[in-house]
Write a structure and sequence with these properties.
Mean pLDDT: 80
Largest sheet: 5 strands, antiparallel
Strand order of the largest sheet: 4-3-2-1-5
Shape: globular
Strand content: 25-35%
Radius of gyration: 16 Å
Distance between the termini: 25 Å
Low-confidence stretches: 96-102
Number of strands: 5
Structural class: alpha+beta
């Protein structure tokens, strides 16, 4: 699982409607725990959060623009190559992964 998600966090104390608090976040990857939790980058706070209740959604243009503005503010290079944990390049056309080359 990767991409954009709404993450549901149990916050205490509960608000008067007892609704879960949702955060917009980027999926960073699984934690490896038995609960099936994932690590996320919270787009509102810039902090890493962990949750096991989330909904993966299509990436909105606003989130793409926000990530670009964060990268610009941190002076990140323009041509970043994204890879998975095994070093395989993530194909940016949305069809899957490019083959691993050494």
């Amino acid at each position: 699982i990767w991409g954009y998600a709404q993450v549901y966090q149990d916050t205490a104390p509960h608000n008067s409607t007892d609704l879960a608090q949702a955060a917009s976040a980027l999926v960073l990857g699984p934690t490896g725990n038995v609960q099936g939790s994932y690590k996320f980058y919270n787009l509102d706070t810039g902090c890493q959060i962990v949750a096991n209740q989330f909904t993966v959604l299509p990436m909105p243009r606003e989130v793409i623009d926000l990530v670009h503005s964060i990268a610009d503010a941190q002076q990140m290079p323009a041509n970043i190559i994204f890879t998975d944990a095994e070093g395989d390049i993530v194909d940016d056309d949305g069809t899957g992964f490019a083959p691993h080359t050494d």
